[in-house]
């Protein structure tokens, strides 16, 4: 969560400074984005200096991770479905985080508006992280994921038809809330798996790799190709339709798996009355 606070503050700061410094090129005022590289160098330098004084202690453990058991658990019906949904949330996050601000620029947003959008997105994501505990406790992580996906549909379709840059700023900010809630739900999901197989760090690392690595990577790569072919609004519309399909798949899979588990449980717990012996009855 504190990383999101840093990103939000940096976005407001850098976006505001860039909006103050413009240069004239061939009679046209151009934004000087070179300033962002100076901020980047300064932040990296501060991070390196801070890391030099960090003391990290690793717990001693002789337990070896049984990756076969971890993979086998994730290949079970419900867990496999949730892993695919986790990957899809990573795809959405990769697309919006890397191309959302560019689209705001295409809509005519000024640099300070882009800074506000980026800052609000990460500030609102802090709210998502903070409120995720109460939300998941009340609804469960599955319902929270389904609700986030439902709102994602509205956001993606909204971006497909938006014309006002300020409305785009609002939609971009809402996505931050969904990103915080969805990832927190994915972490809780990994916790339920680790309870069965142990190896909490390995399980969470696997889920994080699927979301942040595979999902975000696919989102950035495929979105860039699709945007180049059909355009940004059409890409958002496509993601809106895809999100509807994923939500339908998620709900139907859950219902089918739950129905099957209920039948198995009912069969295992069913019993038959043993007829009484007449002699004993007398």
TrEMBL record:
The chain crosses the membrane at residues 35-54, 75-92, 112-132, 139-161, 181-203, 210-230, 236-257. Pfam families: MFS_1_like. It comes from the Eukaryota. It is a multi-pass membrane protein. The keyword Signal does not apply. SUPFAM superfamilies: MFS general substrate transporter. Keywords: Membrane, Transmembrane, Transmembrane helix. GO terms for cellular component: membrane. Belongs to the major facilitator superfamily. MFSD6 family. This is Major facilitator superfamily domain-containing protein 6-B. It comes from Acropora cervicornis.
């Amino acid at each position: 969560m504190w990383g999101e606070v840093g990103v939000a503050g940096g976005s407001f700061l850098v976006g505001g400074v860039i909006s103050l410094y413009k240069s004239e090129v061939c009679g046209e005022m151009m934004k000087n984005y070179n300033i962002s590289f100076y901020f980047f160098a300064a932040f990296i330098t501060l991070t390196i200096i801070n890391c030099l004084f960090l003391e990290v202690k690793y717990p001693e453990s002789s337990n070896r991770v049984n990756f076969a058991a971890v993979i086998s658990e994730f290949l079970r019906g419900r867990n496999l479905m949730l892993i695919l949904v986790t990957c899809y949330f990573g795809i959405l996050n990769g697309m919006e985080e890397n191309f959302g601000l560019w689209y705001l620029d295409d809509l005519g947003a000024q640099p300070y508006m882009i800074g506000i959008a980026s800052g609000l997105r990460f500030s609102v994501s802090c709210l998502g992280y903070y409120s995720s505990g109460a939300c998941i406790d009340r609804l469960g992580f599955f319902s929270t994921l389904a609700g986030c996906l439902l709102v994602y549909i509205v956001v993606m379709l909204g971006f497909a038809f938006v014309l006002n840059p300020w409305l785009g700023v609002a939609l971009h900010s809402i996505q931050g809330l969904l990103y915080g809630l969805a990832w927190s739900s994915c972490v809780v999901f990994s916790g339920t798996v680790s309870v069965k197989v142990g190896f909490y760090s390995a399980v969470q690392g696997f889920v994080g790799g699927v979301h942040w690595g595979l999902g975000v990577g696919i989102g950035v790569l495929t979105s860039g190709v699709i945007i180049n072919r059909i355009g940004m609004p059409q890409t958002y519309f496509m993601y809106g339709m895809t999100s509807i399909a994923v939500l339908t798949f998620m709900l139907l899979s859950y219902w089918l798996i739950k129905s099957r588990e209920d039948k198995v449980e009912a069969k295992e717990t069913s019993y038959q009355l043993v007829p009484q012996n007449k002699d004993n009855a007398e």
